[in-house]
Amino acid sequence: METNDKLLTLLRLMDEPEAMTEAQLQELLSDEEVRKAYDVMADCKKLYQKPQQEPLSVKWLQLGHRFRIAAVFLGAVLLCGLAWAIIPHIISSHTDSPQPVQVSTPLLGRGGGGSSVRFDDVRLDSILTVVSAHYGKAVSFRDEEPRSMKLITTWNPDESLEAFVDHLNMFDYIHLILKNDTIFVEQTSGESKE
Questions:
Q1: Residue 170, helix vs strand vs coil
Q2: How far apart are CA 51 and CA 141, in angstroms?
Q3: Of the residues 1, 15, 158, 161, which has the fewest C-beta atoms closer than 10 A?
Q4: Which of 177, 182, 132 lies closest to 157 in space, CA to CA?
């Protein structure tokens, strides 16, 4: 049970003390944050139950101050819990993880003519990761913009790497160069040069 859930259970317990056994209460209070919140609540309850030695207005001021402290503490704990729950969603929606490759015909390495791989709306860095691994080459992006460009294309692993590089060079805004054991990727303007 998370701390937020324990705090909510503790709040419910203050309204219905008979709803929990002593053993369950001790287990709940084993969490340090829950224990601190319980102590503040118990102090508030004691203050409320004291015989009327002070004027009622002073008693309410003290009680209100303690409740504000408890409310701020509980609010901070709940907000932290919500932040921890939201952060994975924010991170996963902003990551640049490679997109899955969609294979349209027989898998790589099975040989035979006509086996091709279709990349459907897949990032260029993901495409080149698959292709370069097949040919045992490295990939170097000289510009960052082409890395996240999404393409729809096919690749036949039975053809040469040079043929695939020539095929990709037909796309606007990118230019691939094959030198030694590396595929270099550059950004182009997409306009014809004079």
A1: coil
A2: 77
A3: 15
A4: 132
